Amino acid sequence: MDSSDPAPSGEPDDRPTVPGQRSDQGAYLRVTDLRVRFDTEDGVVRAVDGVSFAVERGRTLGIVGESGSGKSVTSLAILGLHDAKRTTITGEISVGGRQVVGLGDEEVRRLRGRDMAMIFQDPLSALHPYYTVGRQIAEAYRVHHPEVSRREARQRAVDMLDRVGIPQPVRRFDQYPHEFSGGMRQRAMIAMALVNDPALLIADEPTTALDVTVQAQILDLLADLQAEFHSAIILITHDLGVVGQVADEVLVMYGGRAVERGSVEQVLRSPQHPYTWGLLSSVPSLHGDADADLLPIRGNPPSLINLPSGCAFHPRCRYAERPGGRARTEVPELRPAGAAGEAGTNGHLVACHLTAEERTTLYAEDIASVGVAR
Amino acid sequence: MARFLIKRLFSATLTLFAVSVLTFLMFFALPRDPVTGMCPKNCNPERLERVRTELGLNDPLISQYAGYMKGIVAGRDLGSAQGGRCDAPCLGWSYVTNEAVSDTIARVLPVTLSIVIPAAILWLLLGVGLGMVSALRRGTWLDRMAIGFSLTGASLQLYFVGAVLLLVFVYNLRLLPVPSYTSIFDSPAKWASGLVLAWVALAFLFSAIYARLSRAQMLETLSEDFVRTARAKGLAKRTVYGRHALRAAITPVITIAGLDVGGALGGTVITETTFGIQGLGRTAVDAVRSGDLPTIMATVLIAAVFVVLANVLVDLLYAAIDPRVRLR
């Protein structure tokens, strides 16, 4: 993409494109075998260990997992926000056809905020407390549109505030983040992230810090804006309910690795990994038995410095004994989930030592024992 | 804002009142007779008694205090031996130097201001600058040098640093004159050359603390979410650091700076003594030594005024920097 070519119009397709950019198998973001390691005093943290996925424009990928599963580290790696001195990143991250891994600081900086933007979990701490909301949005616009006057940038920020559903945007422009409610703050964050029409938006737990009613509004807003701007969205969350609401595809991460990947239908309707089963039974269901017990996954997330051998989930897995000792010695590969030729499993991948037949029977027993009907 | 100032003015008055009462009581609690100290050896008891009566020291404490306070507010008549009529704000007549205390203060206050204000500017620039650089270059040799500098500064005493500076720059290299005070209005060059060593010594010791403080603050701020947001927007590093991180990191530094400067303006005894300059600090110590009540009261009250003023100023600055702070 020609970085000097401004794209001031709100039309997403006015964005200048390099010929061939879209031909990258349709995916705007393509992550291949991403590995992120931090060198700490206690040892090497393998925060992300060989993760691959792709997101097309107009599609939403939900990345699900507990804290420490590598979700946020992955997104920060895409934006190039890790401290280069303490972080080793290998693999490929292709954003609109450009390699981000190994790209110079200045080149990545130019992509950030313009081609890829991010919204964070807690909008109160993510917005600068000393500057007005409008000024922060206008700043995000002007850094990538240096030719634009202050007045134009202000108008653009006001328009964005209006677009994300903030009433009285002209007055709100001059208010500080602490004068906004939680939901309004997250709307303002979204306005700031979308002010340059980025083709890729990463939302890191965007609704976790919000009230449930506000959560739904924010998710609706994201879906609306996606339809309008045709952006690729990565939604990072630990909440499978949120994923079911907005995602097209799902990536389940555990201990820095992908353990299951597939369409939202596949993963939520016929989850293949015992960890995904655990995640599902720890979410209350609207349609199931209201008295059913929520079953937390036993144990704690693993230490990324000292990951369990073999399948990282085996110490917490109820079925770890079934494949014999392999669960303890062999890292399961991400493989097609269904038996060969089975209908409806196209593109559904799982990293589990259990056979497809075992998983089918065990999941049936699992939901029966938990009593959560889905 | 106006309401805030009125409230602060009121509480400042209360503070100063409490300080004056305590100073007064402490002076009379001391097991010494101010009159014996100021009289030559051949004073006979009758003479001492006469002086005591003249100074009002035989009056009940409460009326002595009331007289002193009335002098500050409205002026009073001190009697012919003490310069007669003393206009408000009357700080009394020194038992020792035999002059109006206000004259003493007018002489020594500019000295202390001349020492502290340039030194404070120097130590803030140096300390905050060093702290920021070492935070942004964490782990490099620059950072280690800055940490070494702060440790040195924090471990040394002013009279040692001062003595070394004097030895090198005045007595060995003869680059500077022996420290002394000249009014800036008479000769700015002499004013600066006479005080520069005091500034450097004070700034060295204080900037060490500020370097450490601002380094820690900056490191903390750099890990804040809003700094990550600023980077995620694609802002250039200097904008992220200069506009987003620095402003948040500097706020606590301002608080400490306000209190330090306010305290230092009340007198820098060790500095003044080391460099042989008579400022507010030495005047206060001399007054305590010789039992000169009016001078003690004046110096203590002036120091208290500076501390109170510094506090108000810090609050105002805070409100100017942080929009979440509302002054009430």
Strand order of the largest sheet of chain A: 6-7-8-3-9-10-12-11
Task: Identify the CATH class of the largest domain in chain B.
Answer: Mainly Alpha
The amount of beta strand of chain A, in percent, is: 15-25%
CATH architectural group of the largest domain in chain B: Orthogonal Bundle
What number is the mean pLDDT of chain A?
86
Shape call of chain A:
globular
Report what the structure shows.
The complex is a heterodimer of chains A (374) and B (328). With 374 residues, chain A is an alpha/beta fold. Chain A contains 13 helices and twelve strands. Helix content of chain A is 33%, strand content 20%. In chain A, the strands form two sheets. An eight-stranded mixed sheet of chain A has the order 6-7-8-3-9-10-12-11, with helices on both faces. In chain A, strands 2-1-4-5 form a four-stranded antiparallel sheet, with helices on one face. The longest helix of chain A has 18 residues, at 212-229. The N and C termini of chain A lie far apart (45 Å). Chain B is mostly helical and 328 residues long. Chain B folds into two domains: 35-90, no CATH class; 104-321, MetI-like fold (Orthogonal Bundle). In chain B, strand 1 and strand 2 form a beta hairpin. In chain B, helix 5 (101-136) runs parallel beside helix 13, helix 7 (158-172) crosses helix 8 and helix 8 crosses helix 10. At the A-B interface, helix 2 and helix 4 of A face helix 9 and helix 10 of B.
